[in-house]
Predict the structure.
Amino acid sequence: MSADSPYEGRLIRLRAREPEDEPQLYTWFNDAEVTEHLSLRYPVSHAQERSFAEGTTVTGYFAANFAVVRKDTGELIGGVELKDLSPENRSAVLGIAIGDKRCWDGGYGTDTMRTMCRFGFEMMNLNRIELEVHADNARARHVYAKVGFQEEGVRRQALYKAGRYQDIAIMGLLAGELRLE
Ligand SMILES: CC(C)(COP(=O)(O)OP(=O)(O)OC[C@H]1O[C@@H](n2cnc3c(N)ncnc32)[C@H](O)[C@@H]1OP(=O)(O)O)[C@@H](O)C(=O)NCCC(=O)NCCS
């Protein structure tokens, strides 16, 4: 594993969330293209996003929810979290959204996944990180497999959105399996 900063990858840096992030979150999470593959389905209000932004400013083992910023410009481009932490099992569930569509396919999501998983293994002593991904989110599945996640199962027709059912894949990554290249 790298001896570099645990908060930084090649392109991105993880930082704590700030209340000032709210307007950006509001724009992203009311954009159907951004939310297409997320669990969000209802329009969100400024009040909801303010409450989320303010409620996630204090970080810790059970609150590993971070903003993702570009290293070159410092611009906020997304968010990533490790939730459902289990100290007994040393496991967590990862969620990610690169909300700035201009950054899609620019390597930021891959770098964020690597940085957050490295943080989880090296700083939180996790042994397992898992996630759920919509079956037709081909870009995300490609990224997760590229960094080492393995598909472990399928929840058939677990999602109903945009007028149809869709499977949800469960993917998992164990300590030592993260691919940094
Ligand atoms: C999914 C997401 C995190 C990926 O981040 P990103 O910055 O766009 O991804 P990257 O640029 O690092 O990598 C994209 C890879 O997917 C590939 N890709 C793009 N579209 C693809 C498709 N339709 N099928 C297969 N692969 C695809 C790219 O070629 C690239 O692969 P490569 O680096 O091996 O060439 C980001 O797009 C995102 O947050 N999307 C909206 C919310 C979301 O879907 N979150 C995940 C919920 S589980």
